[in-house]
């Protein structure tokens, strides 16, 4: 009887390796765990402070602002080499100039521009340049989701824009606050309705880290109530939204997704119609403050309400949840 040769041993070893490779190749691959989010649907107060100050209007006449080339929509980030942090601080820097020319560093359409402005005294003896500026905003909206894996949230489904220029507010910092709906102005054709609520400016629920065209995003210090559900793909047909239109109560209301257009911009991926008689009775349809109300279909979160059609408040638009999560960036795992 002969023992295995040197070559036979090698062949046997190679055969085992090949068999193991085949077994590994044939082994079932474990599917990745689905992304789970908690649909929230409760209103929140939002306060946001801009990076620099936004020019919202220029006064008429030959003002220093017009003469130096300042434009509506410009963001003043520096004055005389000092970083501008608020409207009050900017006013102080103008007084410090004593009427001497000062360089303004401006963010304009994604680029940087330097202008030289010479402040003039008004009738009260205060140095000014003839521009209305804004450094912060506050309002009410709806939280869309909470991500239990990261502690992050998304809200509104669209960005916070300046009311005068419709420009996305340049973001420095901000937070969300507890809110309670006190009253509703019903929507009517040609007149947008709104939720009217109270929020506590002294108590923050969590900081914001981004203001984007697809929503505002931040982290929560307290985990909201609710069961996490998987993400879904929106399809035309029946769906529901979670909305807070009375007190602190979050309820489910029926809607119809009329059309899905995933390539649309500005949070108009979905065309929606409110079909729930209870919601129509209370609000007349979609109203301001409902932006961010999560949309669920077949037990999955698929998007959020974003806009109302002014000529028909029963209809509006929504954003796909995937687009919100893309905009959330590194703040969400």
Structural description of this entry:
By secondary structure, the protein is an alpha+beta fold. The chain folds into two domains: 208 residues, Thrombin, subunit H (Beta Barrel); 70 residues, Pdz3 Domain. Helices cover 16% and strands 45% of the residues. The chain is built from five helices and 21 strands. Strands 2-9-10-14-13-11 form a six-stranded antiparallel β-barrel. Strands 16-17-18-21-20-19 form a six-stranded antiparallel barrel. Strands 7-8 form a two-stranded antiparallel ribbon. The longest helix is centred in the first third of the chain and has 21 residues. The chain starts with 5 loop residues before the first helix and ends in a 5-residue tail after the last helix. The N terminus is likely disordered.
């Amino acid at each position: 009887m002969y023992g295995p040769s040197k070559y036979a041993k090698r062949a046997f070893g190679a055969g085992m390796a090949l068999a193991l490779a085949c077994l590994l190749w044939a082994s079932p691959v474990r599917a990745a765990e689905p992304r789970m989010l908690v649909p929230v649907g409760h209103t929140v107060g939002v306060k946001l402070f801009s990076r620099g100050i936004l020019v919202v209007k220029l006064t008429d006449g030959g003002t220093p602002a017009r003469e130096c080339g300042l434009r509506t929509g410009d963001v003043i980030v520096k004055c005389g080499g000092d970083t501008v942090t608020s409207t009050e601080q900017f006013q102080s820097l103008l007084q410090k100039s004593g009427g001497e020319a000062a360089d303004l560093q401006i963010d304009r359409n994604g680029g940087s521009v330097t202008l030289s402005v010479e402040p003039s005294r008004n009738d009260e003896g205060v140095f000014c340049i003839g521009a209305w500026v804004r450094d912060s905003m506050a309002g009410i909206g709806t939280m869309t989701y909470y991500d239990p894996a990261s502690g992050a949230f998304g809200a509104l489904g669209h960005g916070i824009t300046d009311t005068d220029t419709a420009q996305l507010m340049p973001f420095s910092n901000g937070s969300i606050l507890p809110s309670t709906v006190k009253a509703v102005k019903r929507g009517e054709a040609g007149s947008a309705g709104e939720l009217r609520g109270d929020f506590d400016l002294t108590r923050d629920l969590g900081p914001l880290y981004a203001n984007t065209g697809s929503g505002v995003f931040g982290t929560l210090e307290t985990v909201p109530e609710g069961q996490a559900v998987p993400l879904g793909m929106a399809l035309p047909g029946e769906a529901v939204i979670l909305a807070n239109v009375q007190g602190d109560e979050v309820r489910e209301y029926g809607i119809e997704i009329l059309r899905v257009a995933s390539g649309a911009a500005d949070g108009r991926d979905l065309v929606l119609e409110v079909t729930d008689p209870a919601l129509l009775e209370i609000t007349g349809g979609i109203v301001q403050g409902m932006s961010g109300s999560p949309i669920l279909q077949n037990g999955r979160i698929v998007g959020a309400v974003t806009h109302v059609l002014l000529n028909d408040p029963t209809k509006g638009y929504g954003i796909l949840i995937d687009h919100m999560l893309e905009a959330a960036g590194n703040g969400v795992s």
